Amino acid sequence: MTPTEVFSIVNMAALPMWILMIVLPKWKVTRFLIDFKIIPLLLAIVYAIYICIAIRTGGMDFGSLASVMELFTKENAVLAGWVHYLAFDLLIGMWILNENKKLGIHHVLIVPCLLLTFMLGPVGFLLFMTIKSLKKINP
Length: 139
What we know:
Elements lengths: L2 H21 L4 H9 L1 H21 L6 H7 L3 H29 L3 H14 L1 H16 L2
Helix pairs in contact: 1-3, 1-5, 3-5, 5-6, 5-7, 6-7
């Protein structure tokens, strides 16, 4: 399987989970997938495989910006980095939904947090933390 094919597969694995979290966050299938972190675990396996390949084929140096830029010229390293983003952004999205179970913020306000986390990772997390802080100030 080529890295391009794996890239398509991991994207197709993550996207339905985001749709479920946005459209059907309380559905028992969605909750099962969130509770057991099925998709992030699958992505973690793919990540581990491609990190091993990247290490074996050229090592990994995160010691300087130049070495990181050099690392991301290698297809397997870029794929591993992409899977890393997919897995961790998805985990943050799941965490947001779990936190919101306790907070009880209307889902309409959580959807932008999830969309931003999906597309821009930390920006969605920042928005959720802002909304969470405002909720605690004004319960």
